[in-house]
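A protein record in our archive is deliberately plain, so that people and models can read it alike. The tokens are whole numbers drawn from a learned vocabulary of local backbone shapes. For reference, a complete record is included directly beneath this paragraph.
>
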Amino acid sequence: MSLVPRDSSKCFSELPDCLLETIFSYLGLCEIANCARVCKNWNRYLTDENNDIWRLQCLRKLSEKALKSDLLLSVPTYKAKLRAFYHAWNPLDSSRHIYIKPNAFTLHRNPVAQSTDGARAKIGFESGRHVWEIMWEGPLGTVAIVGISTKDAILQCHGYAPLLGWDDQSWGWNLVDNYLLHNGDAGNFPLLTNAPKYQVGEKIKVILDCETHCLAFEKNNEFLGVAFHNLPSKKLYPTITAVYGNTEVSIVYCGYPFDG
């Protein structure tokens, strides 16, 4: 005779939240993702992006200081903060003159003369619509470019150059002079008369639409327009290049645009 009740699956699907919390606390992200597909009750519990399971997962990856910082205000739930962590700067895909700070979201460019240095995020996309928030937290120098690139775009060169947008594998907006750059060509952006220059600390949103193959920018919640059309059907990564020593740049993945 079987010792497992015939309706055991029903028993598991009706476990109270306090027991689900205890069980899920021992699991990793892959296992939690699988558990969300088991039944409606488990899915309901894990859909709450601010419950203690997602808080625990955050604490395993992010410091308490990072979780409470203003940097992550645009991603209010624990699950969103964890998602942002996995989409932050890639320490293995950046110039040797750049290091990623312990909070995982902020890069620091070392004071190296006659060098232009860049960094890419960990995850790129070739489908869907995605938004990243980028904030320059130090002097701009003569080159401070935000945009996107493929894995084939170089991230370091000798001298001070508009590296992001230098070739056909990258698209950038130089915040210093309000120029768009791609494949060596330049154009004004935004298309406004006497458009104000970027001020250190302002938040830039990089908006990638892989469905319409467009890249747009937003500054301090003001939509500036589409900057680039006809992007290739390749995996594209948010990218920056900088030249000023000790400057710092933070990135936060926000997910889909608020308009859907």
Q: What stands out?
A: The chain has seven helices and 15 strands. The chain has a mean pLDDT of 91.
